[in-house]
Design a protein that fits this description.
alpha/beta, Alkaline Phosphatase, subunit A, 2 domains, two-stranded antiparallel ribbon, 39% helix, globular, binds zinc ion, signal
């Protein structure tokens, strides 16, 4: 952590620097001036699933100064430009930022399977297909496979979601459908990649549970399969390993960052271990996915999206550390596959005002609230008044008429907002399926109570979502290191592969 402080912002020495660093207000320092010279033999590709400009910028504002604080500070400052509103994510300090379009062969609002195919193979395909052409017959080889075979690089694949989920699968699998979990698992083992880490495999024994476990097949193929942090800690340079998070959450993914317990490994810890395992003289390629940025956006849970975006930003710092030691041989990209949720910054109900501090009142992800609270409300027929006590505790929202209207937007519900939550509570308690256009727009396919709580909290913060699915927004491509300037401009996601292949001189095969 001290490295972060060194040499930055001398005039801030008088203020509580340590606490600002702890809050992530400063980005990892990049040593020297990145020239972009050199040839990469260590390549990191970070993918925030569903992480376009709105997710990144709202995370920066979230760790920046609160709106009321800014107004006071600017009023009292002789030079308001000294008072930046936003905080900085680690990759916002990268010298290059380009933009990539994300459409696929069949959709302007594509999915992770087709977009990751484009990023890793330079080809467009159908939504939900992984590394096959639109006839679903021709298989495309990925940059990771090419680097493994042509350059003898080691390969690492990390994700906060399942290791056979679409984005990680797109580094090693070739399947007409992303839902072929077991066949994708078989391809994971066959890839002979060196380090996998993150959430558990989906259907490791196939749909009926009647096939040999992917984990046991991996062990037979020479992988160390670790299910505890203790086992993961003992991995050494040169090991071939599959590391599954000791603590699994919804759908056997890693926990959301805002549910993560003290001492539980974060994505950054898995990246750090991965660098230790993969480092070798030929080179390595590491793909790191923040997969739950997308999941939280599907559920319209802004607070959890922001927490996971910040966790990805933290993980990038490990790569920056590595870059600092090998600046002419390291390339780091931070990008996304597509946007999710149609998140935007600005909401009709708060006019020009934004209150990111309001979101800080949320202490739990939508998924954990569903599993740990809503399930028992239904079972015990908990009264609305009692539910509201938990809502106040976990999301900060207070019943109308409560004392203490907060300075920043306020967490006291209006009668209208309270009514929205009560209607959703009634819908949840009824146990009936959502149906019809109105209910879909209100709740999507989510638990009506939970999604309405996050909607109200988002809206009180001045932000909102337009969708429970993906959108057609372009995504940023941040670049640091050898070859960084290739990533300037506005291009197609297939160009990411083409640029990487050219920089690492792999041939398309
Ligand atoms: Zn998605």
């Amino acid at each position: 952590m001290n490295r972060t402080v060194k040499g930055i912002c001398k005039k801030a020495a008088g203020i509580a620097l340590a606490s600002l660093v702890a809050a992530g207000a400063f980005a990892q320092e990049i040593a020297g001036t990145p020239t972009g010279k050199g040839t990469p033999k260590y390549v990191f590709v970070f993918i925030g699933d569903g992480m376009s400009y709105p997710q990144i910028q709202s995370s920066a504002y979230f760790i920046g100064k609160d709106a009321a604080g800014i107004v006071d500070e600017v009023k009292n400052s002789s030079n308001p430009s000294d008072s930046p509103v936003g905080g900085l994510l680690s990759f916002m300090k990268f010298p290059v930022a380009g933009s990539a379009q994300t459409y696929d062969a069949t959709s302007f609002a594509p999915d992770s399977a087709s977009t990751a195919t484009s990023i890793f193979t330079g080809k467009k395909t159908h939504s939900s297909s992984i590394n096959v052409d639109i006839s679903k017959k021709i298989k495309y080889r990925t940059i990771a496979e090419q680097l493994r075979d042509q350059k003898k690089w080691k390969i690492g694949v990390l994700s906060t979601v399942n290791l056979n989920h679409a984005t990680p699968a797109a580094t090693y699998a070739h399947q007409a459908s992303r839902k072929s979990n077991y066949p994708i698992g078989l391809e994971l083992v066959a890839s002979n990649f060196d380090y996998f880490a993150g959430g558990a495999l989906m259907e490791p024994e196939d749909k009926k549970g009647d096939k040999e476990s992917i984990y046991s097949l991996a062990q037979k193929a020479g992988y160390k399969v670790c299910f505890t942090q203790k086992e993961a800690s003992s991995l050494k340079n040169g090991d071939k390993a599959i590391v599954v998070s000791e603590t699994l959450a919804d759908a056997d993914a890693m926990n959301y960052e805002n549910d993560r317990a003290d001492g539980e490994w974060s994505l950054r810890d898995y990246v750090k271990k991965g660098i230790e395992v993969l480092d070798n003289k030929n080179g390595f390629f590491m793909m790191v996915e923040g997969g739950k940025i997308d999941w939280a956006c599907h559920a319209n849970d802004a607070r959890s999206t922001i927490a996971d975006t910040l966790a990805l930003s933290e993980a990038v710092k490990e790569a920056v550390d590595f870059y600092n030691k090998h600046p002419k041989e390291t390339l780091i990209l931070v990008t996304a596959d597509h946007e999710t949720g149609g998140l935007t910054i600005g909401f009709a109900g708060t006019d020009y005002n934004l209150f990111f501090n309001t979101l800080k009142a949320q202490k739990i992800s939508y998924a954990k609230f569903d599993s740990d609270y809503v399930a028992s409300y239904k079972k015990n027929k908990t009264s609305f008044d009692d539910v509201m006590k938990d809502v106040t505790e976990l999301f900060g929202l207070k019943v109308p008429g409560s004392a203490g209207k907060d300075k920043n937007g306020g967490l006291v519900l209006t009668e209208y907002e309270y009514g929205r939550i009560r209607d959703a509570y009634n819908k949840t308690m009824s146990g009936t399926k959502t149906s019809g256009q109105m209910e879909y727009e209100l709740y999507g396919t989510y638990e009506p109570l939970t999604v309405t709580i996050t909607h109200v909290l988002n809206n009180k913060s001045g932000i909102g979502f337009t969708s429970y699915s993906h959108t057609g927004l372009p995504v940023p491509v941040f670049a640091l290191g050898a070859g960084q300037y290739e990533f300037e401009g506005y291009y197609d996601n297939t160009d990411i592969y083409k640029k990487l292949a050219a920089l690492t001189s792999v041939k398309q095969d």
